[in-house]
Amino acid sequence: TVDVTRGIQDALTAMRPGLTGVSVDTTVFAPKTFVDTALRDIGITAGLGLLLLVLLIAALVRGRAALVGVLAIAVSTAAAAYVLYLRGTTFNVMILAGLVIGLGVVVDEAVGTVLAVRRALREHHARGDDRSIASVIVDACAEVRGPLGYATAVIALAVLPIALLTGIGGAFSRPLVGTYLLAVGAALLVALTVTPALAYLLLSGPPRKPWSSPRTGRTWRATRWYLGRPGWAYATVGLFLLSGLALLPQLGNHPVVPQLRDRNLVVQWQAAAGTSLPEMDALTLDASRQLRQIPGVRTVAGEVGRTLISDRVADVNSGQLWVTLDPAADYDRSVAAIRQVADNMPALTHTVSTYADQRLREVTAQTPGTPVTVRLYGQDLATLADQARRVRETLASIPGLADPTVRAPATQPGIEVQVDLAAAEKYGLKPGDIRRASTTLVNGLPAGSLYQNQQIFDVVVVGRPAVHDSLASVQNLLIDTPAGDQVRLRDVASVQVRPTPTVIEHENASRYLEVTATLTGDVDLTGLLGTVRTQVGALPFPTGYHADVFSDLALRQNADRRELWQIPAIALAVFLVLQAAFRSWRRATLLFLVLPLTLAGAVPVALAFGGVKTLGALLGLLMVFGLAVRTGVGLIRGYQSVERAEQDTAPVDVVLTVTRERAPAIALSALGTALALAPFVALRSLAGGEVLAPLAAVVLGGLLTTTVILLYVLPTLYARLILRARVAAPPPDDQPTVLLPDEQPTVALGITPEPV
Hints:
Layout: H1 2-15, H2 31-60, H3 63-86, H4 93-127, H5 133-158, H6 160-163, H7 167-192, H8 194-202, H9 214-228, H10 230-247, E1 264-271, H11 277-292, E2 297-304, E3 318-325, H12 331-343, E4 348-354, H13 355-364, E5 372-378, H14 381-396, E6 401-407, E7 411-419, H15 421-426, H16 431-442, E8 445-452, E9 455-461, H17 471-475, E10 478-480, E11 486-488, H18 489-492, E12 493-501, E13 506-507, E14 510-519, H19 525-537, E15 546-550, H20 552-582, H21 585-594, H22 602-608, H23 615-645, H24 651-681, H25 689-722, E16 725-727, E17 751-753
Antiparallel strand pairs: 1-3, 1-4, 2-3, 5-14, 5-15, 6-14, 7-12, 8-9, 10-11, 13-14, 16-17
Helix pairs in contact: 2-3, 2-24, 3-4, 3-7, 3-8, 4-5, 4-7, 4-23, 4-24, 5-7, 5-20, 5-23, 9-24, 9-25, 10-25, 20-21, 21-25, 22-25, 23-24, 23-25, 24-25
C-alpha cells in the first residue's frame, strides 16, 4: 500500500508540468495515511511495553543474568523479524500481531532458561563438584530443552484451527499464524544456542545472592496452603469450569475481522432506479456541504455513476463520497455525525464504512445466503423469466421447501423502440437505419476527435435536449428516408416505456436468474438437494438454457463439519504429544484437562471486547494457551525428574521442591508478559489497536487464571491424583518464606503416602 501510494504521488508529480490549471489533491483518499498511523502507534506502544519489560527484568533478576535475559529476548525478536525481511514480507498489522503473541513465548523461554542456568550454577558452586562451568550450563539447558520441544509441538498443533479458518478470517489469520510460529521457532533456537553462550560469557563468575522477593515467598506458601487443603483446589476447578459453561450461551457469532478505525471513510449512496444524473449531482453536492460542516471533517470528495473503464457495477443513480477525518478529531463522534447526515438524506439508501470494510463486504456479499438456490443460465431475459417461473412452481411442490422466490434484477424505466417491419419497408427504411438514427439523436454518436492545446476532445453528434426530454419527443423524432423525406419514429416503430434491468448479471459469459427457497423445518438438506436436482433436471429447457442447484447453507454445514472433525483430531494429537512428553497416560490426562481451565479468565474479557470469535480474542486465547502449555509441561517434567532422583522423598515435598524452584520464573514470565502487553490495551481507540487491544486484554485476563491454575491447582491435583498422597494441613509457618535452592523444607507436613 505504501509503495503504491508513493508511486502514484511520484507519477502525478512528474505529470505536473502538463497539468497547467489542474489542481490535484492526493490527500482525499490515501490508505498510506492509515498504515503509517497504525505502524507509528503500534511502534510507540510496543516500545513502551518492551521498556517496562526490561525494567522489570533488571529490577527483579538483577546483574548479569538480567542482561542475558534481555539480550535473549532481543535476539529472538530480531531473528524472527529478520527472517520475515529476507522473505520480503510486508510488515502490516497482522504481521506485527503475530510478533506480539510470539513475545509471550520469547519472554518465557528467555526467563526460564536464564533462571534455570543461574540455579544450576549456584548449586554447582554450593556443592563444589569438579564439573566445568560449560558442562553445567549445557546440562541446565538440556533439562529445559525437552519441555521446550514438546511444548513447541503442542503450540504448533494449537494454532492449526486458526490457520485452517476459511473465508476472510483465514486470509487474515494465516500470515499471522506463520509469523507466530516463526517467533516461537526463533525463541527455541535462541534458547538452545545463543542463551547458553551468553550465560557462559556473563555468568561464569561467583554467584550472587538470588532473587528473594517476598511475593515469591508468599506464592510458595500459598502453594503449601493449597496442598494442605485439596478441597479448595477442587473448588477452584469447579468455579472456573462453571464460569466457562455459564458464558457459553453468550459467545454468539461475531465478525472475525474487526472494523478498522481508518480516518478515510466511504459513504455509498443509492437512489431509486431511474434517478437522473442532475438529481444525483444535486443530492451529492447537498450532502457534501453538510458533511464539510461537521467538526473534524477535513476533506470531502464525491463521484457519481461510473466511467467507461471502471471496475464498479453502478449506474448514475449511485455514487460515493470520500470523507477524510482530521487526525485530532474524535473518531467515534465524527463517524456518528456523518451517519446522521446520511440518515437525513431523502430517498437514499447508504452505508458508511472504511474502504477496507467496503471491499470485505463486497467479497462476502458474493456468496448467496439461502438454503437452496437454482441458477438458470441463458441469453434472453424474457425467456429466463419464463423458465424461472416454471422452476419456482416446481420448488413449491417439493415437501420441505418454502417461499420459492425469483430473484429478479432491479429495474428502471427505459424507452423501448420496436421497429415495425412493414411500416419501415413502406418508407424504404431498414431496421438498422431506424435504430442508428434514433440512437444518435438520443444517446449520441462519436464522429471524430478535436486536437487543441496538446489535448484530444471527442466530437459527438447528439440531438438537442428538447429532442429527447420526454416520451412524446422521442416518438416524434424525425428519421431521414432514402427518398429525401422524413418520417416520425412513431410511424415506423412502437415507442413505449418498459422496465429495464439496471444490472444484468453474468457468469461464464452467460446471463442468469436465480430462484431461491427456504426450509420448512429440520429436514435432511443433502437428500432435499438431491430431490431438487432430480426434479429441476427433469424440466425441459430451451436450447442454450440450463440450471444449476447449490446451497450456501450446505457449504457452511460442510465447513462446520470439517471444523468439528479438525478440533477433536487436533486435541487428540495434543494429548498424544503430552503423553510422549511425560511417558505417562495419567500425567498427560491431568494436564490435558487442566489446560482449558487456564482460559477461564480470558473468556469474560473477550466478551467485553467484542466476542470470543473475533480475531484479537482468538489470538489472545492462543497466546495464553501457549504460555500455559509451556509452564505446565515444564512443571510436570520437573516433578518427574525429582521423583526419579529422590525416590524416598515424600510426594508433597516433590511438588513443593519443583514449584519453589519454578515459581520465580513463572511469576516473572507472567508479570513481564503482562507489563509488555498492558500498553496495548490503551491502543483500543487508536489506529492499529483493532486487533492488538482485545488481544492484550484477553491475555491479561488469561494470565491471572493461568497463574492460579499452574502454581496452586496443578501441584495439588498432581500430588492427590498422580502421587496419590493424603496431605494434612501444615501448621502455621512463621519462618522466612524464601528458601535457597539447596535448602530443604524443615516443616513437618504430616504426609502419609498411600500404596500405589
